[in-house]
Amino acid sequence: MSGLDALGEFGLIKALTDGLPETSRLLCGPGDDCAVVQLGGGQVLLSCDAMVEGIHFGRDWMSPEDIGWKAGAAALSDIAAMGGVARCILVTLGCASDTDPVFLKGLYAGIAAVVSEYGVAVAGGDTVRTREGVFLDVAVVGEMEDGITPRHRSNARPGDIIAVTGCPGSAALGLHALEQGDITPATLIEAHTRPRPRLAEGAWLARESAAHAMIDISDGIASDLGHIAERSSVHIEIETAALPVSPEMRVYAKKTGRAVEAFALGGGEDYELVVTLAADEATALRERFVATFDLPFSFIGVAQPGAAGVFLDGKPVGRQGYDHFSTGK
Amino acid sequence: MSGLDALGEFGLIKALTDGLPETSRLLCGPGDDCAVVQLGGGQVLLSCDAMVEGIHFGRDWMSPEDIGWKAGAAALSDIAAMGGVARCILVTLGCASDTDPVFLKGLYAGIAAVVSEYGVAVAGGDTVRTREGVFLDVAVVGEMEDGITPRHRSNARPGDIIAVTGCPGSAALGLHALEQGDITPATLIEAHTRPRPRLAEGAWLARESAAHAMIDISDGIASDLGHIAERSSVHIEIETAALPVSPEMRVYAKKTGRAVEAFALGGGEDYELVVTLAADEATALRERFVATFDLPFSFIGVAQPGAAGVFLDGKPVGRQGYDHFSTGK
Questions:
Q1: Range(s) of the domain holding residue A49
Q2: Which of A47, A54, B20, B121 pairs as cysteine with A122 (C-beta 3.0–4.6 A)?
Q3: Are residues B116 and B168 in the same domain?
Q4: Is A248 inside any structural domain?
Q5: Distance (Å, rounded) from C-alpha B4 to C-alpha A130?
Q6: A321 found inside a domain
Q7: In chain B, what residues touch A5 (CB-CB under 8 Å)?
């Protein structure tokens, strides 16, 4: 076999998880934002998210508090993407022996900040030594509210309207600014350093029978919608003109020399939600959503019958998101 | 602050977890083998265990299947130490882009083998890129049988008999043999490469009201009993002559030039259980245990009132276990 670059993250996951044993308690296994397991008389949601120094974060442009916040937020967002309620996390810290304890205290302060903000407990974890660098792995446990079913990636139906919360691409622009040492686009930088898991919004949407499939944007709209298209076997059409773009995004994108839509479509780590909605109820649902949350909620496309795939203005969209192992776009 | 070496693993954990928020759902937080969380109408057990290449395992003397088995077994053992039933795991894999996919398939085959053996599901996980080397982090979820309470480290009472399953130290001797390239002590090597989490034994013990505190041996009897002594505020006396030593251990220890008891007392990663028992029921319980399981069950000491600590033949025992950050004994 060739290396992991050729296989890609999703190819690797498939190769690794094929043949793993399943049990009847496993209501939903690998391949969604969370696993769903029958436990203690209820449905428990489980997920984990790891971040590695030098790959997912650097100490140059993020404070340890930001790194800790972000690691926690990324994990909590997986619960949001199912429409669940986050209950607790486990934190695994790997670090070299010469790591500054002040840096580590900062990491945990950031984790404490995000879990406090969202009413989640740190239940435990592990600390291990590495040969170099720091990694954080956050496992998260949640549950569904009584009578509410998890919103799987596979739930989209032909005819659904595709909606997105917030303004994805903000985090990617914020990262670009940080890399340039430009601290002026504060809201974009905050989108990158202090992303907000959409837990209240996800749980609200899951109470709506018109909300079908849901996913959080960790790799970019194009890539993450691809998971919905594939698992729901729908053909998704999105329109460039419909992508939500904030004034801050538009202003800063000019400095990058790239189209703002490229960030909106391909930028990852916003942790906004994409949800597919029954077409006849979508507009009324949107009105109630924006009346409840101080957050944009935009219709960006439709799901149609046809071969699974994501199309932008009628053209197939390549994988423009972030694949952890592939080197190309 | 000085470096992590001075702080040590347990000092680090204390420094990091002080001040983390708690919630009423968290029945038992950091500091035991598992966290216990109120979820879905029941008590859910949670833990995680990470292994880093070059620190916890090497490719030189362990096959990828062994490494995967061991990572899974270490996590499952935390459920055993509470007396719980393991239900599922999440597997986070970190690896460099140039990692051989065949090696990774081997890792997952080992994980699949251990979870199949113990009736546990792989519910999900994460894959991330590292700059070099592989790490595995396994989060495990379990629950207590109806009406059975978790066996905490803090449950030991003065007067309790200290009992241990199997022959701890076997894994450390097996590792020594592997490092020497000596493959003759097969049972010792298997103790290191294919440790067996004592799930059935732990659940059986938890059904016995005479079984008070329990812990699994990951760092060595001396170190792990220290956690029971500290959290239960008891003075623990153990006797060298009472430590269970198998014939294979005795034979191979001679080749090492060290006393076999040093391995029995300080050797980690056996994942045997240490349990404290009500003295008046201990002997009858032991008879039933050995009639049920094909496994030694040895009385090695007693818990007494007095200052928390572990004493061997009347002398205080230093930390002879494995501390992930301390360099000295």
A1: 12-143
A2: B20
A3: no
A4: yes
A5: 12
A6: no
A7: 97
Of B44, B98, B325, the CB nearest to A97: B325
Q: Of B143, B174, B207, which residue is a domain's last?
A: B143
- ipTM of the complex, rounded to two decimals: 0.89
State how far the alpha carbon of B150 is from the alpha carbons of B77, B86, B204, in Å. Answer: 14, 13, 12
- Cα–Cα distance for residue pair A162/A231, rounded to 1 Å: 15
Tell me the pLDDT tens digit for each residue of B246-286.
Answer: 999 999 999 999 999 999 999 999 999 999 999 999 999 99
CATH of the domain at A30: 3.30.1330.10
Q: What is the mean pLDDT of each run of 10 residues along chain B (329 residues)?
A: 60 71 72 85 90 91 94 97 96 94 93 95 92 96 93 95 98 94 94 97 98 96 94 96 97 94 93 98 98 97 95 82 44
Residues of A with Cβ-Cβ distance to B51 under 8 angstroms: 128
Q: Structural domain tally of chain A?
A: 2
CA dihedral (A275, A277, A281, A286) in degrees, to 10, reads: 20
This prediction has a pTM of 0.91
The DSSP output letter for A26 is: E
The type of residue at A180 is Q
Tokens for B33? 């083998």
Distance between CA atoms of B79 and B140, rounded to whole angstroms?
A: 8
* CA-derived radius of gyration, chain A: 19
Cβ–Cβ under 8 Å, residues B246 and B170? yes
Identify whether residues B157 and B257 lie together within a single domain: yes
CB contact under 8 A, B119 and A23: yes
CA pair distance B298, A70, nearest whole angstrom: 48
